[in-house]
Amino acid sequence: MTPMNLRLREWQEGDLALLHALLGDPEMTRFLGGSESPEQIAARHLRYVALAGTGTGHMLVILSGPSWVTVGSVGYWDKEWEGEGVYEMGWSVLPEYQGRGIGTRATELALDHARADGRHHSVHAFPSMDNAASNAICRKAGFRLLGAHDFEYPKGSWMRCNDWRFDLQPPNSPRPATG
Ligand SMILES: CC(C)(COP(=O)(O)OP(=O)(O)OC[C@H]1O[C@@H](n2cnc3c(N)ncnc32)[C@H](O)[C@@H]1OP(=O)(O)O)[C@@H](O)C(=O)NCCC(=O)NCCS
Q: Above 50 in pLDDT, residue 1?
């Protein structure tokens, strides 16, 4: 198979239209609690632009070569999970680019990015149990399925999600340095 020509870059001021395409669309957000309002998307965009500066995660734009068109997003951020500091990761690929392996490859690149970031031992993803494509990404990228949990998202609506874990370092390696 030809290696896929993808790269990731940090979220920028000019990426608001991408966020509207990803989160303002009912089909794209079918397993994410439904589409967000323009106001919610604008506020989220500002959080994404600021995220790298907070030292608590990275929201990344997926670019596809050779002309480096914008095809989606993948990101990770700090989460406290079962008494442990971990990264949570999430991904989205624009409809016209889905089904070509981009989501899986971009997730692999984001796992490398999180390993280099180096603050936590593991990455968790929590796709809805009904989200076949997203669960397939977890399996193909090498996450381990740990079980299922109910999450309230958005407020008032409950979703059953799988808990997938990817170990960035061997289990007994020293805890990554913080600060
Ligand atoms: C989930 C998503 C990112 C997948 O992106 P993608 O680029 O199509 O993913 P890939 O091409 O790498 O495909 C991954 C696997 O999902 C499968 N898949 C893709 N679309 C599918 C669908 N609609 N139903 C079932 N399986 C599907 C692929 O066949 C592939 O598995 P396979 O190689 O074993 O056949 C994309 O569907 C998306 O953006 N969905 C909306 C946002 C979302 O739900 N994000 C997840 C939040 S946890």
A: no
